[in-house]
Batch of 3 targets.
Target 1
Amino acid sequence: MFKTILARLQQGHRTMKYPDGPAPALSDRFRGRPAVDANICQNGCRLCLEACPTDAIKISDNEVNIDLGRCLFCGECAKACPAGAIRLTGDYRLAVRNREDLKITANRQTIKLAAALEGKMKKLFGRSLKLRQVSAGGCNACEADTNVLNTLAWDLGRFGIQFVASPRHADGLLITGPVTQNMKLALKKTYDAVGEPKIVIVVGTCAISGGPYIGHEQVNDGIADIVPVDLYIPGCPPHPLTILDGLLRLLDRKTPELFDNSDKVRQS
Amino acid sequence: MNSENMNFVTLTNGRAANLESIPTLEFKDFSRAVIDKVATGGRVAAMFGAASHQPAVTHIYAIIADDSQNRLCVTRTSVEGCEFESLTPQCPQVHMFEREIAEQFGLKPIGHPWLKPVRYHRSWTNRDAWGRSAGKAIQPAVCDFYRVEGDEVHEVAVGPVHAGVIEPGHFRFQCHGEKVLHLEIALGYQHRGVEHAIAGGPDKRSIHYAETLAGDTTVAHSTAYCQAVEALSRCQKTAHAQMLRGVALELERLANHIGDLGAMAGDVGFLPTSSFCGRIRGDVLNMTALLCGSRFGRGMIRPGGVGFNINDMLAEELLKRLTAVEKDTTIAINMLWDTSSVMARFEDTGSLPKNIAVELGVVGPAARAAGLTQDVRQDQPSGIFRFIHVPVSTYDTGDVFARAFVRWLEIQHSFEFIREQLDTLPAGEISVPLNPLTPNSIAVTLGEAWRGEVCHAAITDEHGRFARYKVVDPSFHNWPALAYVLRNQEISDFPLCNKSFNLSYCGNDL
């Protein structure tokens, strides 16, 4: 008992100040939201497009489009670009409400970040959100970095968000993985078991588009139209900070905002 | 000795060989050779099917690790038609491999004691080992399970969707009261067709398949993949790159072992260690992110070397964090051994006897906890581990405590290894260019991932593309061991036993 108390004192208080304080510092090598510089892009060279493992890049009207819903954030496009027109910034904020909002172009560098739930939904879930997690394929990295939010460093419980053991206890689902054919039925049944009204959050590029498994006959290429989605959080896997930022936006909690041209997120 | 030479070709980890050098034995000689080799201490690292030029003929390859000689013995046979005689009754190590061959190639191992699918998908050929019609959907885990009957015997079914934030799988317990008589595990829910998709490569998606075979084992799997490509491309990595791969691998081991010990503490209700370790695991993942921008090591291991370099400043920062993490970890974990309520739950729970570990072909900390001195870093070393020796950590009771304690011993060795490497940074390039892959060749690579042995086997066609790419995750060897240790345990000890193995669903399901 005495040893336990001593250890407790040694380990100290470790829950981060975010979102009331600044976000935890990320690695300088962290790969967040890609940005395309239209001024130096040699339109039509197509090297980025050829380098992309998941065909997340398209060129239309001579303009590079990147679909973050397909992006693995591997940075191969940035490496391939001879002009250095593409780079992956340190911006970790990536969650959106609509699938289309995940598409960025040279003219639309930032994405339309997720708006809060409205009206009755916000009233119901804003201060207490119970989620059932369903892992439907994938590599378990999204699950691992979702689980991290339950550690005392992140302490998800302080926002009233909790993962519960049964869909019957849940307000919604948090889904990961490309939705394998073998998990489709179980996912649908779990969704049906959640009482109305309910929300659906998809975490990770797999769940949004199929990720590295796009086009495999064994998967459904993500959630598609199996169930309606309220929040998309891209990444392979998304950083815990990206996931938390998305959840807080959905629940209309204050997050550190200010964003300047150097792509560093600072405390407002 | 002479006939043994004729039966197998000897490879070392990470070296390629011409396909023609591998003997193609008559099936009965193949069967005899594999059974004899395993009976004299060999270990089945992989056994798998591969298509031949004739649709009716399938090759079966066997890769047997001869750990005492630091070598890999490879042989093969041809099977014509749709069945072959099962080796499993005499060599239980191939139990799951034969089920996998049956599922992928529609070849029925005659005499297999428990022939069920592994992943519940359609075969890659037009044959089906269970005679299922092509039009009928294959439902995962929809099949007969081993069943115990009698007064007051009941069945508990769990999954595929579990209570925690974890992967899907189906567990069927046969119980008498609280006592588990038998557990059968049905997986396949995570099957996403990776092995089939890698064939035809390498291409721009291959490395991402390797990185996502099992997300928590990104470094070990991507290293095994890159070593296979490098072996087939005859390229020589720099010492600098090999050192960085070693550091990334040991960081991966640290993060997972620390997380596992925290989770095991949580499962016996000892919350201090559970809370501390959950946080410390994150600190280690953040060290990996300092190296390569990803907490899971995505982007770090690349064919020809590594994706990111390290400078003195970064090395210093990593060393600083390592010292802090080591101190916190030591205090958090030593509390486990000092707490009698934890030890009472850990000791004598879920025991895996040494002979059963050998029979099932168990790998990794689970094998070492059962007293087997078996570690790829020592037995089949590649990369940095050919130069730096990491001691093998073993224990002999095979119970939950042993699996926990072996992890703690390994944590300490990993701290030491990383510190040594960062203290003596070799100079050099981080990456070398690759050549086209050698056609008609095979390369086998092994690595000691935190969970156990990772084995990749790449076979190229006449154009130097992958004709077959076989992946064996340590979980594939170890799931049957988890089922075994549950026998005669209380069902309430299942979560603890499960966590003490912490096996991968996606690594098994591929």
Note: Chain A touches chain B through 65 residues (CB under 8 Å).
Target 2
Amino acid sequence: MFLPYFILLIAFGIIPVILAFFTSMRPSMINPDGGLLNYLIVIQDFRFLPAVINVTTFLVIYVPLMLIVVAIMSLLLDTLKGRWAIGLRTAYIVPASISGAVAILVWYFMLEPTYSPYREALQALGITEGTQVWSQENLVGIFVLMTFFTGAGMWIVVQYGSLQSIPDELLEAARIDGANQIQIGLQIKLPLIRKYLIYMAILVFAAGLQIFVEPFLISASVYPGIADNWSLNQLAYAFAFEAANLGAAAALSLMLLVVCIIVALIAIYKTDFFDEAGVKKK
Amino acid sequence: MTNTIDSRTVQENSGRDNARRKDRILGLSGRGLVWLTLILFAIASVVPMIWLVLAPSKSAADLITLSPFAFGSFEQYGIAWQNLMVFQEGRLLTWVWNSVWYTALIVLISCVTAIMAGYALATAPIPFRRALLLTTLVAMIVPPVALVIPLFIEVTTIGIYNTPWAIILTSSFYPFGTFLAYIYFSTSIPKELYEAARIDGAGEFGTFMRVALPLSKGLIGMLAFFSFTANWVNYFLPYVLVNSGEILTLPVGLGVLFSSTPGINPMLGASILPIRQPEIALAGLLIAVPILIVFLASSRLLVRGVLAGSVKS
């Protein structure tokens, strides 16, 4: 019963990592000896530090923004009852269907003053040309906007769902004790969904670290070259397919993977989210 | 965005006042602010989708001159579609078909393997169970993008590069599904049921087929939901693992349209292809609409699935 999944796990979960490790040790044109020097070559590459700074800046804005907005919006949504909450929840889920390549398409139009539904607002800000928006210093903001927009609504719905599981008696007791809505929200509900929010932050961080599609597609098609090698994954891609240096690409991929694995282990062992899963020793 | 933050600040400030005044303010303006925030966020959520749905109803010229929310005509959808079909003699249809059958196979293989594995983890004595569970959890939290380059290396090594199987097989590894199934089978179905079936002489597989599976319709829906929504839109993996035009998926094909037509690429203004903004929007809709329908129909599954790790039954 376990075997088919086990084969997939080994074949596409474990073996690629092992292969990538050996590949990362392989010699290349610029490093005839191979070995750990490949990792050093990646780190010393002139594009590495800017990409680290880009992705870090992105994460520093994106992760807290998601946490704060999702927490507030789901708490606010939870103060409503019945039909209204269902209607709003339905609206919030809509942007989740605009992701990846479609997100690039949609945001191109949203930020292009000639097409945008927000054209009046953009013009009020003095933006009449798309190039005023699509400049390199705005890229972090644009990618935060895209990824935030795709994910926030979905997570609000999820966190709202977790708020719904709080027993009514608990909230009623707080109300009788004289707590108002804000106190109930911040002092009772928020601590109760804390672990779900932390879990979300961990997933959002791991996904953000690996950002690729948004800068890649913008740079490959819409505004050629605007975000070349902007993210670390783009750099790995460039090593593999532009410089034909698979060793360096594998090395960079593995470095990113190790960070994600550490984050995953923190999620499993240092948070209480997976307590039910029975992985931790009791 | 600004509105969200503004209303929060206002609320927090009012929250620091003395209790009674606070309650009264909350009762009137606070309530209004909550509504305003929630509704503005809802409007911001649906605007891009409404725009995307309406865009192909207008010609490229109308898109600029008419209001962003004006409806053009139904005929324009047909015209935009015919124009899209001009691109490499209907290549788009191939991409649609590829996306449909790749995704269908991925959903099938990933869900079947995940549900069986989850069942086995929950009920059978498997050697190294805890290690396997841990590996599954790690694989589930690490985003799939992290393995793209390693998978590319593997796929070229075993010789399935640039075949549909490169996408289908690699995407069928579904640790999240296995974890969901494991949680479901270890919490939602009483252990006595399995034991009763075993005592009646059913083997492990028989118990699974006759007892566990009929009780897991909700689980199957949830697994299919997450597998479909992740794979239908996947870009990086198929982009790297195949490169021939005739085996691309719809999202990767959309990327090709971006870079080879003047739709959203200002540098290609003088192309003779009739593929402009409405056509590009229509191609985008082909990807977004199936996902939208699934999300709207199954938001319940979304909540249950994401929180499954820690919710007691």
Note: Chain B has 16 helices and no strands.
Target 3
Amino acid sequence: MADTEGHTLLEVAVAIALFVTVAAPLGASVVYLQYERRVARDIQALAVAEAELEVALATRVGAGRSYWLEDRTWRVQLSVEHVDARIAYNVEVYHRRAITPIVTLRTLRWYPSATL
Amino acid sequence: MDERNVHIAWGQDEGAALPLTLVLIALMMTLGGVVLMVGSIQYRFVRSDVHDAQARQLAEAGIYEAFARLHDNPHWRPADDTIELINDEAVSITVEPYGSYLWVEALAEAGRSQSTVRVIAGERPPLALERAVVQWDTQSSLNVAGTTSIVGDIVVGERGVVESTFKTERFVGEVDGTVYPVQGLAAPYFDTTAVSLVLAQYDAWARGATSSTPSTAEPGRYALVRARPSRLPVRRLASGYTLSAADSTWLNQPHRVVVAGNLTVQGPLRLPPLTHLLVRDTLVIQGAVSGDDLIGYAGRHLRASGPLSATAQLFSQDDLHLGAGVRLDYPSVVYVDGRAVDAQGRIHLEEDVVVNGMLMHPPQPARPQQAAARIRLAEGSLVRGAVYNGLETEVHGLILGHLWSYQFYFFETPTNYINWLKDVTIDVTQRPQAFALPPLFSPSPHLEVVRWAATDSARVSP
């Protein structure tokens, strides 16, 4: 009886140990990789948003413009609103298949009429 | 080995397996937890980077919103006022004088990120001042003589510009620009109110007024990042004090140095950015002194000699003398008020002085009593920017930019020559494109960033 109990306990212990040593790290790695993917995606999306905004500001994209840029990974929407010599820039970066933006950047510039 | 021993051995195995398994489970769970936590923290970091970028863009938006409001009301001076942007987001804005320029600060939040952007703002030259030369003494023509070369447009009284023979020497220079003779020409617009208030405040501080001086000094690098001209820690020194490298122990962060008398700044010395030297009587700067965004104020005389290399705004009520070897980088301002003294002030640049920025001497309420009340640029001096003078300007040096003056002057035995420019070179095309004036050269100034002073981010508590 003691032997049987001992074997059973050992088997259970080995099974749990195997599960923990194999399955748990595997599961954690999968979750970690998901995080990594999101991190990498968000970093790229931030870089794309900042670059688009910089280009829009440097080229003084005209007010009232709104356009989509799309490539294999990203969709970028830039909208430019003009109120009283102020121009509000709004950049949204989406993953190609997503419907909510990953990064949104908004800023404003002021150009008196003489310089527009 | 008998059966009893075998049983004992199994019993020992049973005892070890369970704790070992538990330890292993705990270890792996911990490992898994750490891995998940690292991933989660990494993700939080990147989201906070996104919030940082959003906060910074909003803060920059606040700077331009402030420019827009200052365009409509140039005397608007909010202090940590919350204003709404056109997209309903809010930023906190501060505008305060920084010498003759403006200090504009915007603070914005996004998520748990907070970003502060600080800029030094100046005014884009109005179109009317894009000329190379403006002379608003309409009593005589502007006489150009010798090798005088003016590249750029000229605005003068209705008597126009005359290419004159000086004694027997014919004019061999050139005027490469359009001449605009204007009937009843007046001084270009300049609202001295803002600068006058600043000088009055500097004077009050130099005389020991304590009403608006801050009481605490924030230590170390934090103070530099958080520095705002009105919040600088104050250091009072005795009259006759010599500021030198020996003071570096406390002068490792910007201060408002106040002296109710005279002060000598003796190089070699590097002053921290934003340092204010406010002196009631005479300020002397000599030796290898350097620094950025410095303010120097003297209630009477300010004298600097080389090798001084700095970005500085130097103010004096009476006279301001820059000796050989002084190099002031853009955006520097050399300003003499002159209205509080009989002599009405003067600015003198010796040979081998370079000013990248502006020389200013605003129009005076009356004609000066002393002939020396003028701006004088000695031969071998250079101004890259602009000269604005409500009195006489005597030019022997080089001006790469603008010269706006009531009159021009030089003396050659035995005659004073009024409104003559002889052997002078003024070239507005050589002025750097990025050039901003101290406000207010127009009632609705078009402000722009002269310098991004600092940007810093912080976390806010949830």
Note: The longest strand of chain B covers residues 398-412.
